[in-house]
Amino acid sequence: MTTNDKKLTTSWGAPVGDNQNSMTAGYRGPTLIQDAHLIEKLAHFNRERVPERVVHAKGAGAHGYFEVTNDVSQYTKAAFLSEVGKRTPMFIRFSTVAGELGSADTVRDPRGFAVKFYTEEGNYDLVGNNTPVFFIRDAIKFPDFIHTQKRHPQTHLKNPNAVWDFWSLSPESLHQVTILMSDRGIPATLRHMHGFGSHTFKWVNAEGQAVWVKYHFKTEQGVKNMDVNVAAKLAGEHPDYHTEDLFNAIENGDFPAWRLYVQIMPLEDANTYRFDPFDVTKVWSQKDYPLIEVGRMVLNRNPENYFAEVEQATFTPGAFVPGIEASPDKMLQGRIFAYADAHRYRVGANHNALPINRPHVEVNNNQRDGQMRFDGNGGASTYYEPNSYGGPKESPEHRTTPFEVSGLADSVAYDHDDHYTQAGDLYRLMSEEERTRLIETIVGAMKPVERDDIKLRQIGHFYKADPEYGTRVAEGLGLPVPQTV
Fold first, then answer.
1. CA–CA separation, 139 and 145 (whole Å)
2. Is 56 a known active-site residue?
3. Which one is catalytic: 46, 129, 225, 350?
4. Per the record, which residues fall in region Disordered (predicted)?
5. How many domains does the chain fold into?
6. Looking at 21, 46, 56, 130, which residue is catalytic?
7. With a threshold of 0.85, does the pTM exceed it?
């Protein structure tokens, strides 16, 4: 093992005091924009690749509609959810996370599940994955995490040393690692997987009453996964397998559909629930907060032009409509900045004026100029607010509902550090055949790691989740379970 005395610094040379936790107003935030290290780190990260997306580069998309099937107006005043039978046009983009634009569809990777609803109150973007949790829970760690999934700067090869070193030093990743390495890590098609909003959000009804909410899209096609050997064969012979399958299904009239459900948590429960409800590495038990049906999403039209629609589609978890708001989830708070900033860089400041992103309602704001301004640029209308010339005004009734914050402004971690219970519960839910495939996948992924101390550290995490889990991985790697666990 090697040690050094080098200090991590910002790009302007100042030492970084905390690179694990973003600065928040109290333990639950929200995240403070004064955290210059976080802002600079995310903004620089968004500009590391030209011109494809820095993550989720390889994707497929489709148009469709969302139809409300259950009255949820007691929870949210969002107009597109206001009445049973109401239909809203939408666009979805599925994607892998780590690979480049030309990478294979059938690799082991989470899948992006990004939905844009063209509502009468503006666009609402729900930008999630096909997993209910994520690897990290603070956006300040996201550039580092994605670096480990990308290529080594010298060899330009994937680097299992970096992958497992980071995961073993970030035990909060264990739940998502277990999902990724399980059968669910390679879906059979994009049609045969669930989707999740992953984060906790806030719903607010017409009376101003709020609840916390999580989204679950359940595929009507049934969940089907792909054997690792078949996936490897297709990656070489047919790297666009998922893209073609989705296109052909829609073209042939076999329209994929998902049922949207939500979990609802009263605001006050957030202070007493056994897991922090804003920690995106954790799930809420469906026994505690049962699924409530909301509606049905159907994909029934393919894009006419891939670049204009799929490649130029931009999604941000900060695109809310009245009745839907953010929670203090630290990962969500960082993504609200980072995604929109990535689009301003990659597509341009006027990306929301492109046809695929343009709202289906009138847009009135004072944003002017910028590269590739291709509309009327606001004409001769007023270009500032407040004004005395009849320009658009703010609507106080649409202010974000307040929530209480407390504590010192500081870089702090979540105050719940149980990273093992839910991962262990998931392991114990698997059949013996599923566990065997999980262990084989993990062992195969960890064998190329050069340093035993990294392997042993990760084995310790598996063991803490479930002794059998850790022991079987250790045996597969020919290593002992560390005595410290």
1. 10
2. yes
3. 129
4. 1-21, 366-400
5. 1
6. 56
7. yes
